Amino acid sequence: LSRTLVPTMVLYLLAPEARARERREAGHDAPERPSLFGRLSDAFEAGFHTLTTTYEGALDVALAHTRTVIVVFLAFAAVSLFLYPFVGRDFFPTVDAGQLRLHARAPAGTRIEETERYFQQVEDYIRQVIPAGELAAII
Fold first, then answer.
1. Crossing angle for the helix pair 66-90 and 36-64, nearest 10 degrees?
2. Which residue in 23, 32, 73, 132 has its CB near the most CB atoms, within 10 A?
């Protein structure tokens, strides 16, 4: 591990610093153009800074108007209670597929003729119990 991972990490992590130090010592003070990852990281950092600043401002406003925030919260909570009866119908509709599944097995080693007779009896019983107008197919 120390012969493979550590030198690889040094190559990727310390080599850019060493190159920058060599340039400074040689008198080349021109800044090195950041890599694609560096530019993406800078853009993310700027966006995150904007987000945290905006959030901090929103918290300052909320803390300055505590009573208003509490009243608005309670109003939203009360309105959500009136929506409760609709949750079961709109978000989770009742499912009635109108299907009946029956899994039946004949004992292992049963002859095909006996198995066919057994399943014919099952089908006949289903046809007796379920009216013909409500039965679409038996598969």
1. 110
2. 23
Whether residue 36 contacts residue 45, with contact meaning beta carbons closer than 8 Å, is answered with: no
CA 40/CA 64 separation, integer angstroms: 36
Q: Determine the residue type at 63.
A: L
Which alpha helices (DSSP H) does the chain contain, by range?
5-13, 15-26, 36-64, 66-90, 112-129
**pLDDT averaged over every residue in the chain:** 83
| Amino acid at position 75, single letter | A
What is the three-class DSSP state of 133? helix
- Whether residue 25 has pLDDT greater than 80: no
d(CA 118, CA 138): 15
Query: CA-CA distance, 32 to 52, in Å (whole number)?
Result: 29
**Cα(46)–Cα(48) distance, integer angstroms:** 5
Single-letter amino acid code for the residue at 56: E
Burial of 118 by CB count in 10 Å (0-12 exposed, 13-18 middle, 19+ buried)?
Answer: middle
Q: At what angle do helices 5-13 and 15-26 cross, to 10 degrees?
A: 40
Pairwise CA distance, residues 85 & 90, whole Å = 9
